[in-house]
């Protein structure tokens, strides 16, 4: 092999190794004449263009991704090896967002990490997690069933709560304690209440609501039940 060809082989070797992500300094430098000792022992390499192992496309040098001796085109590499965004299902190149406490399941593009329901951003970095996904306050509480059932309020409940959830509690919603009022006269019901049609009433208005309704004896008795108001602290 002529001296000039040997030099080219060394340069090509370096280029290939650079593309493939191997360390170029693993090639022994023979001496001051510029010849690489390793290049003489290796067979000559084909041109830098390679074929993708998966899709058989010809890959230009800048698009080659090497994975355990399989040359892949950039698209196949991205498709097979990069994590997929849980919102848009596309692969994530570069920074992925998830939660440090592991409550968020999977990873997100930075631009996809928004309320899963309404796509509102989280400008101060605070978000709510429901079913492993990020939500804004409103949609978290909507899914969680923790918006105040008082028709004039409807806001999220994050502290103390009065709950009519469950048939044994009247089958209604949850309330801020100050919102837990008679549905007719709006007087506070912080000690006792009655439930008619899943809504809370004072005794007088529960009687009036009951009188407006027909029903079996057991239904009338259930509506007449005086219930203790329990404020749950969270
Ligand atoms: Zn490919
Ligand atoms: Zn995405
Ligand atoms: Zn939202
Ligand atoms: Zn309320
Ligand atoms: Zn009342």
UniProtKB/TrEMBL annotation:
One matching Pfam family: LIM
LIM zinc-binding domain sequence ranges: 83-146, 148-212
Family matches, as InterPro entries: Znf_LIM
Annotated spans, Disordered: 213-234
Family annotation (SMART domains): LIM
Gene Ontology cellular-component terms listed: nucleus
Bias (Basic residues) ranges: 225-234
Keyword list, A-Z: LIM domain, Metal-binding, Repeat, Zinc
GO molecular function: GTPase regulator activity; metal ion binding; transcription coregulator activity
UniProt entry tagged with the keyword Oxidoreductase: no
Name of the protein this chain belongs to: Zinc finger, LIM-type protein
Organism per entry: Rhodotorula toruloides
């Amino acid at each position: 092999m002529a001296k000039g060809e040997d030099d080219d082989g060394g340069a090509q070797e370096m280029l290939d190794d650079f593309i493939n992500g191997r360390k170029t300094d693993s090639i022994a430098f023979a001496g001051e004449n510029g010849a690489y000792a390793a290049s003489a022992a290796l067979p000559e390499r084909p041109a830098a263009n390679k074929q993708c192992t998966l899709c058989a496309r010809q890959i230009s040098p800048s698009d080659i991704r090497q994975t355990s001796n399989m040359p892949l085109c950039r698209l196949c590499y991205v498709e097979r090896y990069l994590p997929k965004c849980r919102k848009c299902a596309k692969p994530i190149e570069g920074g992925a967002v998830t939660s440090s406490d592991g409550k968020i399941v999977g990873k997100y593009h930075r631009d996809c990490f928004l309320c899963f329901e309404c796509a509102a951003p989280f400008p101060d970095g605070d978000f709510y997690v429901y079913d492993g996904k990020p939500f804004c306050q409103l949609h978290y509480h909507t899914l969680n069933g923790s918006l105040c059932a008082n028709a004039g309020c409807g806001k999220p409940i994050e502290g103390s709560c009065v709950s009519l959830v469950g048939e044994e509690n009247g089958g209604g919603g949850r309330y801020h304690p100050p919102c837990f009022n008679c549905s007719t006269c709006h007087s506070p019901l912080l000690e006792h209440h009655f439930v008619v049609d899943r809504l809370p009433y004072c005794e007088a208005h529960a009687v009036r609501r009951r009188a407006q309704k027909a029903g079996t004896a057991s239904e009338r008795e259930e509506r007449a039940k005086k219930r203790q108001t329990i404020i749950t602290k969270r």
